[in-house]
Structure formats: structure tokens, C-alpha cells
Give the backbone structure.
Amino acid sequence: MTTTTTTCTHLSQIRDVKPRTPKGCEECLKTGMRWVHLRLCLTCGHVGCCDNSIGKHATAHFHGTKHPIIKSFEPGEDWKWCYVDQIVME
């Protein structure tokens, strides 16, 4: 049996973070890669690129750390995504 949640169960892991690399994806900046959109980890402040980017560094960060929630780091966007619960939060 599969259960689906409509509420994120990881909100307690959100911290008041500062972006570690406010000008771009942390890994892309080190390697010279380009990114499409940026995502901010709300547990540690890691800035990674989205899954439309070649590196997919935000998702790779989740797989490496299990930090569950990211938010868009794009101007004018204010949504969050929980990797574990697979839901968007506005």
C-alpha cells in the first residue's frame, strides 16, 4: 500500500540560512559549468542548479546530505519543494 502526503513532514528542518554562494551554483562555479535555475537548500544554505541544468547539483546535494527542502533561488519566485514528500509548497 502506498500512502501520499499532502503536507510536508519536514518543515522542522527549515533553518534561517544564508546562501553559501549568492552568485550561482556552488559546484558549477567551481567547474565552469552553466546552470539554468538556482535552488537554495533550507537546511544548510547550499546553492545548487535545477534538474534542467546539466549538473543537477541541487538534487545531487539532497542525495548526498538528505536535506529535504529547497526553495527557488530565482528572483520573483517563492515556492519550496520537499524531495522526500514530493510536494511543492507555496
User: Anything to note?
Assistant: The mean pLDDT is 94. The two ends are 28 Å apart (CA to CA). The chain has one domain: 17-89. Strands lie at 38-41, 47-49, 69-72, 80-82, 87-89.
